[in-house]
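User: Teach me something about this protein's shape.
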Amino acid sequence: MLKTNKKAMLYVIALSVIVIFISVTLFAWPKTSSSVNITDGTDGTNGTNGNDGANGFNGAAMDYTIVIATDNSWYAAVPGVPSLPFYNETDATTLLDETILALNGSIVKGGTIRILKGILPLTHTVLLDPEVSLQGSGIFTILRAAANFSAMVSDSGNTAASVRDISIECSFGDNRVAVGINSTGNEFIVENVWVSNFTGVGISIGNATTTFGTEITLHDCHVGPSAPSDAALLAGILVSQTTDALLDHCLINNVNGTGILVNTSNGIIIDRCTIENVNGTGIAIEFSNACDVHSGRINVTTEAGISVTDSVNVDISHYDISFCDGNGTNLAAVTYATVSTLSVSNCSSGIYLNDVDNSTVSESFFLNSTGRGIYMIDCNSNLVIQVHAGNNVGKVSDGGASNHNQFSTSYFFDGLAMVGGNDVVLSCWTGTSWEVYVEGIYDSP
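Assistant: First, the predicted structure itself:
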């Protein structure tokens, strides 16, 4: 009996030792990611100098903190890990290059460069490696142009880079940078970023080659104002050669060019975006398919509010468009479009359709236009239903070589003029009478 108890006690002791060993090992094992921060003050720690391209710390993805010191020098280190390289530079851009190189040199690729409030003058483009995140601390973390070069931040075609919580000033004094953020890679994320004083494009995403960029996200971005210039810029946000991108809750204002330009892309969603005071079109979609524009506002443009050309399967809904020198909504050479729940006022024409086929305009208001509420030319097999057009200078009109268009259950307070063949009017108010059924050419008083 005594031998049995001793043996049991030995088993218990051995098991306890194993459990303690495993617990200590797991506790001591490094986390898979940490951070690098950039601050605007000194922390009393100078660290020790290291070499570029370090191999990382026990396989952990490194996050660097960059400290902006009061003596115009710049520090980068991993908090709590003094054995990792520490960088000290008098040029902020060089310091960013070194820390990105260190992150790429780690066994587990990628990491975060965290920048606390302060101003970092950039002398050349910051090139982000794969899975590297450049993260500031909000609007008071400022990357400012300190030379003339092409783009402030670029992912260099790499995958899963990101820029968050930071301000980018593309022009300062005599220094000019054309593009705030340029992405030609995949899975790129821009979130809570302010871009201003650019001379070309605020944020440019997409691939200039035949390989499309994919899965791009812009969220809570503020683009504008652009740099003062007599020459028109390209756009506040440019999406080109891209598949499956989301532009969500972005504000584009005071831009000397198009607010948002989508070109040669598929599956682009523009959701909850506001465009104000642009010297061009609010949102332009060209040579693109399966794009959605939802739930936003466009106010004061020198051209159209929303323009779609040479595109298929475009859905526009829940937009408030006003005070556009061009048409509120402009569609040309478009098929299978859906336009619904718009409120358009004080534009040239409420909606203008030219060479549009198999599309629907519904549940919308077109008011106070200097032209017509609805203006259609050379359109075929379209449906206009549950639309209000009123207080416009001209009648709702379907002209040119239009054919087989249907107007149903709508109020055309300014009148209706149909010169297209085989058009049908069903239960519409045409200004002076309620037309239950009319087929063919028609012109209300």
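Now, about its shape. The CA atoms of residues 350 and 373 lie 5 Å apart. The first strand starts at residue 64 and ends at 68. If you'd like, I can walk through any region in more detail.
User: That's plenty for now, thanks!
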